Automatic annotation (TrEMBL):
A single MF term (Gene Ontology): kinase activity
Organism: Streptomyces cylindrosporus
Official protein name in the record: histidine kinase
EC category: transferase
Lineage top rank: taxon: Bacteria
CDD domains for this protein: HATPase_UhpB-NarQ-NarX-like (cd16917)
Domain Histidine kinase/HSP90-like ATPase stretches: 297-387
Length: 407
């Protein structure tokens, strides 16, 4: 059964109250309980004197300092209680002060202190009862049980406090870990967005530069070709702006309702056609094997890898033709982009090839770039498939790439 609401509110209020106020009120309560025997004396031969009341007060007043000095308080109460019992004025029917200090030590003190004090009180209660005239056996049991109960309640309070502290510490650790995971996810997402922006801008600007350089050459001799060049520049710019809006929408945490999804393998034919028409480069797309669904991040990585490789071909290779090959196997999709140019000038391949390697690594794959066996430059990227992939139904055209068998 759960405690009543009023009790829960009282306990919560006491925990948040000033500890010195609470301890002073507790000491006053114990002093009142001790004084009851002096105010309402029982019939008998016990002498009720002011000296006896002062000894009883000595078991209550030190409780004001029970949290600031628990050991000193316990010693003072432990000396005053048997002195009052021996003096027999009044006899301690209930050792109120002793119960409080035992609870306090069990809840707050080191193990050796609380165990030593418990043993001392059990022995002291037994010995002091010998000085009480006409003590009955149930009185021994009553006093010993009250001592053990006070100690047990203090132990429960200590365990509960330790458990609560552990729960709170675990919650703080989980909160820190959650914040670290969030920061790490944000950093990874921003790195991905930076790669996407690089790929989009590099690809679009490369095509625009090629067309802008060709336009003035043919503007007088072939006006229709010059007009096509300017149309290609405008189309590349519009496509780049659309993709940038989609990417920046992630940074602004906008809802993507009504926006087109990230491009994947199905968009490769359009990409190849755009590069061929805009840059005047002869690009061929080949596919072998049976296409199947890829994870969303792998779909985007495949598209961006081909886009970056073709962008490098347009910018650096001075090539006339390029080939994009997709090899679908049971466990991976292998992308190979080959051209007949000279490749990047630097040994590291520039930021584009670094981005290709990073994209492949994020998806658990690998990337290689270098001279092709027949000259030119070749980029080979292997992207693993998801476990338990499902084959695409015939005619579904999930990849959007026409499959071509060997030969």
């Amino acid at each position: 059964m759960s405690p009543p609401p009023w009790f829960t509110r009282v306990v919560a209020r006491l925990r948040t109250a000033n500890p010195y106020v609470v301890d002073t009120a507790l000491a006053a309560f114990v002093l009142f309980a001790v004084s009851l025997q002096w105010i309402f004396p029982d019939e008998g031969d016990d002498r009720l004197t002011w000296q006896g009341w002062l000894l009883g007060a000595a078991t209550a007043v030190p409780l004001v300092w029970r949290r600031r000095a628990p050991s000193a308080t316990a010693c003072a109460v432990s000396v005053a209680t048997p002195a009052m019992a021996v003096y027999h004025a009044p006899p301690p029917d209930v050792v109120w002060g002793g119960l409080v200090v035992l609870y306090t030590l069990a809840a707050r003190s080191p193990a050796w202190q609380r165990r030593f004090m418990l043993a001392g009180w059990l022995i002291g209660v037994t010995l002091t009862m010998q000085h009480k005239e006409g003590a009955r056996p149930f009185e021994y049991a009553f006093h010993l049980l009250t001592v053990l109960c006070a100690y047990g309640l203090g132990t429960l309070a200590r365990v509960q406090r330790a458990y609560t502290a552990e729960i709170e510490d675990r919650a703080r650790r989980l909160e820190r870990e959650r914040a670290a995971d969030t920061a790490r996810a944000i950093a990874q997402e921003r790195a991905r967005i930076a790669r996407d922006m690089h790929d989009v801008l590099a690809h679009a600007v490369s095509l625009m530069v090629v067309q802008a350089e060709a336009g003035p050459v043919v503007v007088r001799s072939d006006p229709e070709r010059a007009e096509a060049s300017f149309d290609a520049i405008a189309a590349a710019g519009r496509d780049a702006m659309g993709q940038l809006r989609r990417i920046l929408g992630v940074l602004k945490e906008e809802q993507r309702n009504g926006t087109s999804p990230q491009p994947g393998v199905a968009a490769l034919p359009a990409l190849v056609r755009q590069v061929g028409e805009s840059a005047g480069l002869r690009v061929e797309l080949r596919a072998t094997g049976e296409p199947y669904p890829l994870p969303p991040d792998t779909e985007v990585a495949a598209y961006r890898v081909v886009q970056e490789a073709l962008t490098n071909t347009v910018k650096h290779a001075y090539a006339t033709c390029a080939t994009v090959e997709l090899d679908w196997t049971e466990d991976a999709l292998t992308l190979t982009v080959t051209d007949d140019g000279r490749g990047p000038a630097g040994p590291g391949g520039g930021h584009g090839l670094i981005g290709i390697r990073e994209r492949a690594g994020v998806c658990g794959g690998s990337a290689q770039a270098g001279r092709g066996p027949d000259g030119g430059f070749r980029v080979v990227v292997r992207l693993p498939a998801a476990d338990g992939r499902q084959a695409v139904a015939p005619g579904a055209g999930r990849s959007g790439v026409r499959r071509r068998g060997p030969g």
